[in-house]
Write a structure and sequence with these properties.
The chain is α/β, with parallel strands linked by helices and 443 residues long. The protein contains 16 helices and twelve strands. The chain binds iron/sulfur cluster. This is L-lysine 2,3-aminomutase.
């Protein structure tokens, strides 16, 4: 297995003349020698920028920091770097300084939906817990550019404890997503402590971790880290491969270790102009992911974060990609294409249209080949109206402590759960939490 190739050897020697393979595969060595300024980038890659360009590059990294692991740098094709997907994802572009009319610092309103620092509580039963705000590599397309990389606001133990306390006091939360920054920037022991504290909370059923380490620094997935993670099942991990060439022997090894530890793996790609806005690239990517036991989970429309306009594609590009996947390849290799609602409404799935028309007893559909077909609905159907009155229902729910009684959103309108015949967004739980928080801040 090629874990160390000639190009990597060359990069390692340019960074540190005495470097050996053991250094290259040491994640701490990689972090210590990450490329954080343009002149080191030039020295290591042999690429030279014009003086006029240097000025705008310096301005860009003054606003959004630069950090590229030597490993990720080795993926860049220096002969054609301007078109290279890894160069585009890791190297600053002066276009990041362009702020469009619709750009926002915090497009997903994560800070507004934050009842305590570090926690974003948007959906009813799950929270996002920011336990780190640093990463091994700063992705140029990061949606959290506003805070990722800011060493002055790294969450301390006190802040983490407040987040844990909030989760403890909010039993509706059954799913905790650890994110950041990258949670795997924390030490094994510290992560172990956080996971142990969360596991003590009876209402927390699952823990998820969002990390880009298998992509940008696969050597972080050490046997020691895996041993820690294994203790805290059920634990899920989502990563972010955006291009099939990022699935190298080293990242395959990292994925293998995680999958062998019984951790279900998912991938959340971001649709990026000039990187992966191509049906063939995306199909290759999803195939390589499932070969490595990673389920393609989401394909994200690029958010409206400041400085990302050059990465955005029209939504039609995403639909075109989905059209090329659905039916054309295995269902479990097809991600859900989503737009994360600007303003904080959560992920909204977007798909090509397959339901062409319908009448009272028949629907007309089309498939991926263009076949138009009909599905005959039953002439007699004893309606089951789910009014959430499970005790009187003939269907055997019979679940202990079933929490399904509470209905919100469109689900509520469909179920006749209460008298509501329309939805007024101001009355959602989320907005109420926001209002309460704002009132607390004011008082
Ligand atoms: S690893 Fe994630 S949080 Fe960190 S810079 Fe990349 S996209 Fe942002």
């Amino acid at each position: 297995m090629t874990i160390y190739n000639e190009k990597q050897q060359e990069i390692a020697e340019k960074i540190s003349p005495n470097a050996r393979i053991s250094n290259w595969k040491d994640w701490k060595w990689q972090l210590k020698h990450s490329i954080r300024d343009i002149s080191t980038f030039e020295k290591v890659t042999g690429i030279e920028f014009e003086e006029s360009e240097m000025e705008s590059l310096e301005k860009t990294i003054a606003k959004f920091p630069l950090s590229i692991t030597p490993y990720y740098l080795s993926l860049i094709d220096t002969e054609d770097y301007r078109n290279d997907p890894f160069f585009k994802q890791s190297f600053p572009s002066p276009s990041e300084l362009i702020i469009d009319k619709y750009d926002m610092k915090d497009p997903l309103a994560e800070d507004k939906d934050s009842p305590v620092p570090g926690i974003t509580h948007r959906y009813p039963d799950r929270v996002l817990f920011h336990i780190s705000n640093i990463c091994s590599m700063y992705c140029r397309h990061c949606t959290r550019k506003r805070k990722v990389g800011d060493v002055d606001s790294i969450p301390g133990k006190d802040e983490i404890l407040k987040g844990i306390e909030y989760i403890k006091n909010t039993p509706a939360v059954r799913d905790v997503l650890l994110s950041g920054g990258d949670p795997f920037m924390l030490s094994d022991d510290y992560l172990d402590w956080i996971l142990t504290e969360l596991r003590k909370i009876p209402s927390v059923e699952v823990i998820r971790i969002g990390t880009r380490m298998p992509v940008v620094l696969p050597y972080r997935i050490t046997d020691g880290l895996v041993a820690v993670l294994k203790k805290h099942h059920p634990l899920w991990i989502n990563t972010q491969f955006n291009h099939p060439r990022a699935i190298t022997d080293s990242s395959k090894e990292a994925l293998r270790k995680l999958a062998d530890a019984g951790i279900p793996l998912g991938n959340q790609s971001v649709l990026l102009a000039g990187v992966n806005d191509c049906p063939r690239i995306m199909k290759k990517l999803v195939h390589k992911l499932v070969q490595n036991r990673v389920r393609p989970y989401y394909l994200y429309q690029c958010d409206l974060s400041e400085g990302l306009s050059h990465f955005r594609t029209p939504v039609g590009k995403g639909i075109e990609i989905m059209e090329s996947l659905i039916g054309h390849t295995s269902g479990f290799a097809v991600p859900t294409y989503v737009i994360d609602a600007p303003g904080g409404g959560g992920k909204i799935p977007v798909t090509p249209t397959y339901l062409i028309s319908w009448s009272t007893n028949k629907v007309v559909l089309r498939n991926y080949e263009g076949v138009i077909t009909t599905y005959k609905e039953p002439d007699s159907y004893e309606p089951v109206f789910c009014d959430r009155n499970c005790r009187d229902c003939k269907l055997q729910l019979k679940l202990e402590e079933a929490e399904e009684i509470h209905a919100i959103g469109i689900e509520k309108l469909l179920s006749d759960y209460d008298d509501a015949i329309s939805l007024i967004p101001e009355s959602t739980d989320r907005i109420e939490r926001r209002d309460k928080l704002e009132m607390e801040i004011r008082s």
